[in-house]
Backbone:
């Protein structure tokens, strides 16, 4: 089992104050090969069933990959889903190895599509120093969303 080196909470801003009311979380598992794993949080136990969503990302564009995952499975933007289905070489958008499912050109097109999509969610990214994405977080500046980034460092080594 891999080590979890980052997590993203996705949700809406609290209307009377700071913070986030999360509806989903995405975890980055790393070791032998990275994987983004999406979970529906159902914090208020409303009975929402959660599908298993796992995407094996490209190494150089891991944050773009997770934003695409969010566009397809959380925002459920029709244009993004339609393009992803059209470009995808497999039928199931839930369990993908992005290197095999899309051509690099198609992935770039999908990233651009998500970047132009207004994201009505807030995103809180927490990253450990050991994560592969520690230096990629500025990628979030290219997206139409409110994002907060938190990093950890160890005081004791």
Residues:
């Amino acid at each position: 089992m891999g080590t979890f080196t980052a997590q993203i909470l996705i949700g809406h801003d609290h209307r009377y104050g700071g913070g986030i009311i999360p509806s989903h979380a995405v975890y980055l598992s790393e070791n032998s090969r990275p994987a983004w794993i999406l979970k529906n949080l159902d914090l208020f136990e409303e009975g929402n069933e959660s599908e298993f969503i796992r995407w094996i990302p490209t190494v150089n564009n891991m944050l773009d990959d997770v934003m695409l995952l969010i566009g397809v499975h959380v925002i459920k933007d029709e244009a993004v889903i339609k393009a992803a289905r059209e470009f995808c070489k497999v039928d199931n958008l839930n369990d993908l190895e992005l290197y095999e499912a899309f051509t690099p050109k198609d992935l770039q097109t999908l990233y651009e599509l998500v970047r132009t999509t207004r994201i009505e969610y807030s995103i809180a990214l927490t990253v450990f120093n050991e994560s592969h994405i520690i230096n990629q977080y500025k990628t979030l500046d290219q997206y139409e969303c409110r994002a907060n980034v938190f990093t950890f460092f160890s005081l004791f080594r």
Q: What stands out?
A: The mean pLDDT is 89. The chain is about 25% helix and 35% strand.
